[in-house]
Design goal:
Helix content is 30%, strand content 15%. With 148 residues, the chain is an alpha+beta fold. Strands 1, 2, 3, 4, 5 and 6 form a six-stranded antiparallel β-sheet that branches.
């Protein structure tokens, strides 16, 4: 069940598509985080993904890469509870389908896409990605000066 914030994010996503704009990655992030049992995950070089309580990757937010034709720009990839690729309407799509790569405006900022290695913070191995950003900011400030 989505929260109110998640429902509002979904409305912004649909509105952007209806008006010909690209939906924002931050709205997909809010939507994913509003789903019960979903959690963010990322490798040091990979995209931000949201995995459900059954271990199925449901949302993948990508900045784009020249490695794969058609996915060189920021886009989101969605999957249903069975792990099958879907478009925004929930219809099945193939890996190479254009609807598999819904264009987005990448609005998450630079820090998140650095995929901070939160496991490097001893005792904080199980914190979420956004928590690791705050830890990294604190760690960085402590290196600058003891009073910062």
């Amino acid at each position: 069940m989505a929260t109110i914030a998640g429902k509002l994010a979904w409305e912004r996503i649909i509105q952007a598509i209806k008006t010909g704009d690209k939906p924002k990655a931050s709205d997909f992030k809010i939507l994913a985080e509003s789903q019960q049992g979903w959690h963010p995950t990322a490798t040091s070089t990979g995209p931000l993904k949201y995995v459900d309580k059954n271990g199925v990757i449901r949302v993948t937010l990508k900045q784009g890469s020249n490695r794969t034709p058609g996915s060189d720009r920021p886009h989101v990839e969605l999957r249903n509870a069975k792990g099958s690729r879907i478009d925004l309407q929930g219809k099945p799509v193939t890996r190479k389908s254009l609807d598999n790569n819904t264009p987005i405006s990448y609005s998450l900022g630079h820090l998140i896409m650095q995929h901070l290695n939160y496991w490097e913070f001893n005792g904080f191995e199980n914190v979420y990605l956004e928590d690791s950003i705050e830890l990294a900011k604190s760690k960085q400030r402590s290196r600058l000066s003891p009073n910062t």
